[in-house]
Amino acid sequence: MGKKIFSGVQPTGNLHLGNYIGAIKNFVDLQNQKGNECVYCVVDLHAITTKQDPKILKSNIRETTAAFLASGIDPKKSIIFNQSLVPSHSEGSWMLGCIARMGWLNRMTQFKEKAGKDKEKASVGLYIYPVLMAADILLYDATHVPVGEDQKQHLELSRDIAQKFNLDFNAPDFLRAPEPLIQKNFSRIMSLKDGKNKMSKSDPSDLSRINLTDSKDQIVNKIKKAKTDNDPLSDDDKNLSDRPEVENLLGIYSSLNDQSLQNSLNEFSGKNFSEFKKKLAEIVVEKISPISIEINKLQKDSNYIDIVLKEGGERANKIASKKVSEMKKIVGF
Ligand code: TYM
Question: Contact 40/82 with Cβ under 8 angstroms?
């Protein structure tokens, strides 16, 4: 039987190689496997949990959609829409927010990271953000959710919320606990400047990440400047745990070539970094430049993007509103 896939990406600008390898690349692979039904959402309600400029948000919603399309997500095969078009996400989120416990949310490490030192000043939305994420997934009866490693805890919470809802209302199997789909080796792409920090949209240094909109020259330059160390490469991967920057670059190379880390180690064993970086730049340019060119092209046709979102929104609305109606009945409305 095919899988029911749901996943989302925030339209907060600067989509990068981490988003591509950790998530979007898999969205495309899953879409192209026979029998799967895929829903991919531009999660604009999640984006406003931190302050956004309304004009920039609108353009970022289109840019993220363009990145989906340019990477190979096909609106004829998958549902692509932005979250705010489907009111059921907010409605479902409220009901699930009354199921989730404060203690569960207090454990979310991403809230702690994002809220920083002054938690009192974080928005309430940022705190309850994982509940909205649970609603996204559960409204579509998703069986599998492809994400990067940083979303694992949120998926576990979605499972807990589903189970408690079913138990509290004596509605066995009504909400389906989803399985995370997290790649074994390449689910956490790190900064090019610091192998201990995740590659991130919000890193102030643009040299820390490869954006999906970077030009060939920018990609080559960023890889040239990426941090490494002085030892040559060896085919023994036990040494890699102490060399996070090197491990990360090899991971990027392996993932884009669809080969194991060990294969890449064998390929470059004994060679110096200039040789490896040249090959790495070649594969990143080969995979990312066509996406970047297509994003720029699509962005000139915002009309087309808006039509894709509207049609996707209508299809999503049919599925989600039916589930929310059933949920309301169960709750007693
Ligand atoms: P977001 O927008 O932060 O990231 C989108 C996807 O990219 C992955 N990712 C990474 N993977 C590997 N290495 C990295 N450095 C890296 N940075 C980001 C993320 O894990 C994610 O899969 N809460 C989610 C969006 C969301 C969602 C959902 C996801 C909302 N509702 C329902 C799945 C299902 C988020 O903020 O992702």
Answer: no
